[in-house]
Amino acid sequence: MLRNLIILTFGGLALARPGLEKRASEIPAIPTKPPRGSEPGAAPTRVSDTVTRTTTHGPYSGTATTTGQEVGPTTLLTKNDGPPAAPTGNYYNKNGDMEAPFQLPFVPGGGKGVNGSHLPRYMVESDFDYASVSLGLHQEYIELDLFNHGVARFSEQDFLDAGLTAEDRTFLQFMATQEADHATLLTNMLGESAPKQCVYDYPFTTVREYIDFNVKLTRWGESGTWGFLSHLDSREVSTLLVQAEAVEARQQQIFRQWLGLPPMPVAFVPGIPQSWHWTLLAPYISYCPENNTRIPWQNFPQLNIRNLPNPNRVSPNDTKTDEVVGPRVADPSQSNLTDTESCVQNSTLGYDCSPAVAHNRSEPLTFPGRKLFLSWDEPGKAVGPNNSYITTTTAGEPKFVAWLSQINLTYTPLEITGQNEGWTWQPPNEVYQNNPAVNETVFLAVTDTDLYLTPFNLTLINPHVKALGILIAG
Ligand SMILES: *[C@@H]1O[C@H](CO)[C@@H](O)[C@H](O)[C@H]1NC(C)=O
Ligand SMILES: *[C@@H]1O[C@H](CO)[C@@H](O)[C@H](O)[C@H]1NC(C)=O
Ligand SMILES: *[C@@H]1O[C@H](CO)[C@@H](O)[C@H](O)[C@H]1NC(C)=O
Ligand SMILES: *[C@@H]1O[C@H](CO)[C@@H](O)[C@H](O)[C@H]1NC(C)=O
Ligand SMILES: *[C@@H]1O[C@H](CO)[C@@H](O)[C@H](O)[C@H]1NC(C)=O
Ligand SMILES: *[C@@H]1O[C@H](CO)[C@@H](O)[C@H](O)[C@H]1NC(C)=O
Ligand SMILES: *[C@@H]1O[C@H](CO)[C@@H](O)[C@H](O)[C@H]1NC(C)=O
Ligand SMILES: *[C@@H]1O[C@H](CO)[C@@H](O)[C@H](O)[C@H]1NC(C)=O
Ligand SMILES: *[C@@H]1O[C@H](CO)[C@@H](O)[C@H](O)[C@H]1NC(C)=O
Ligand SMILES: *[C@@H]1O[C@H](CO)[C@@H](O)[C@H](O)[C@H]1NC(C)=O
């Protein structure tokens, strides 16, 4: 300890005297730069250059030239509630012995694409793949725009006022370049008909609201990808998407940290069906370029959580009804609270919600047993690019609320209190003992049944979904 102190003191003295600064050593190196243009090994260009200006945003006021989802020539089944066939797999290894011939040295039998018999092709292999990656590309493009827009819209001082530094703002700018790379990758997997970047309509007016919106938007982007990855026909596409999604997941966690929330109070992140992803994303896409390809996934009616806990509050219990900045499904909580109500300037441990690597919250956002007051829209509303998609549902009478969090789907009964409104309560279930299932982001659906589903057959829920929403629990 004493030795460290002495070294520090000498360092400080040396710096204070011009001409005596400690210079770093020169080490062996070759002057080099990346190959460009027609040079061998040159990298392809990105679909989007680095944006350094403000771009157009706002609602769409025109009339759509076409409406509704892209559909196939026919639809084979309206729903499939099981019972499912017996499992197709039966491999079971009771002693750890390798029984099948090795394919290559140190390569046990099994697996796909590991013995050189398969030439990798990094392109979508089916309509399912195409539509999934198109949706993913819309997500990459809105993130690209949203991160750039955060830098353009909010000044260094705005960031400082929200407890973030100029370095954090520069880091946000870098996240936008990650999105340009992801958009380029996904465009290449689709080919010439890949969707192009659209114009977006955002709900926030302050840095806190911006971050709150980012927490939700990046979570549904991440969960949307986890939901379809293992169902893709192309394992090559899946491989690269995982490698992109690993970075998106880090972005999501960083936005939670910037909002002063526990960074990852869960052991698993849920995967959602594509139609859930599209339902949450579409309201924020204002309009798309002429001829942009259309999306086949469903848009469900919106589920409103009337008492969504406000993460800016010292006491989330005190959140008022509809304390959000606008009417759309993932609009952020209001940040214009009084100094005593707001946790941003509160420096007391357990209450401080300024940006940090990790915070404890003495008063949680939500807790098991907490009542949740809900209302939901009728179908038939125009949403999404050019207001050209229409919300639909095939569900019967609403009876349950499905809570999708971590790797579990839990149903609670829905108590109806009026036309399109009711309440339920947060379930106490655990994933494994001592890991409460409901924490962090929860996807909530009002359903007509409590069909038993697990992560790999979750999409069978869609014909039963009356309305869909998103909740930050914790
Ligand atoms: C979903 O998968 C689980 C097995 O993990 C099975 O028990 C359940 O019946 C399946 N649900 C439907 C509707 O097929
Ligand atoms: C090589 O792997 C493929 C699956 O990717 C499999 O069908 C084939 O039987 C394997 N060949 C050998 C020699 O193991
Ligand atoms: C959406 O609006 C844009 C801008 O007005 C227009 O160029 C495009 O063709 C429209 N697309 C549809 C599907 O109507
Ligand atoms: C859209 O498609 C039409 C018909 O193929 C074509 O004439 C038009 O140039 C396309 N517009 C754009 C912006 O690509
Ligand atoms: C929030 O409400 C719950 C349920 O009524 C209660 O148990 C808890 O003590 C409240 N929190 C605070 C800080 O008062
Ligand atoms: C806070 O902002 C909301 C809009 O986001 C507005 O409706 C409300 O009146 C504002 N409250 C205060 C106290 O300024
Ligand atoms: C933070 O909020 C708590 C709970 O209201 C309060 O007891 C504490 O005094 C506040 N701390 C500061 C520094 O305002
Ligand atoms: C944070 O919360 C945990 C669990 O409630 C508690 O054990 C821990 O002591 C808290 N940490 C601090 C620094 O207060
Ligand atoms: C949560 O999901 C896991 C994995 O599917 C399962 O093993 C566990 O039983 C589920 N927990 C509950 C409470 O349903
Ligand atoms: C959610 O996680 C946070 C952070 O670990 C913890 O303080 C809180 O009690 C958890 N909520 C529930 C319902 O378990």
UniProtKB/TrEMBL annotation:
InterPro entries in alphabetical order: Rds1
Whether Lipid metabolism counts among this entry's keywords is: no
Recorded superkingdom:
Eukaryota
Q: Where is the composition biased (Polar residues)?
A: 308-318
Keywords, comma-separated and alphabetical: Signal
Q: For the region Disordered, what residue ranges are annotated?
A: 25-94, 308-340
| Pfam families attached to this UniProt entry | Ferritin_2 (PF13668)
Q: Could you tell me where the Low complexity compositional bias lies?
A: 45-56
Residues spanning the signal sequence: 1-16
Query: Keyword Signal, does the record have it?
Result: yes
Name this protein carries in UniProt: Protein rds1
Q: Which organism is it from?
A: Periconia macrospinosa
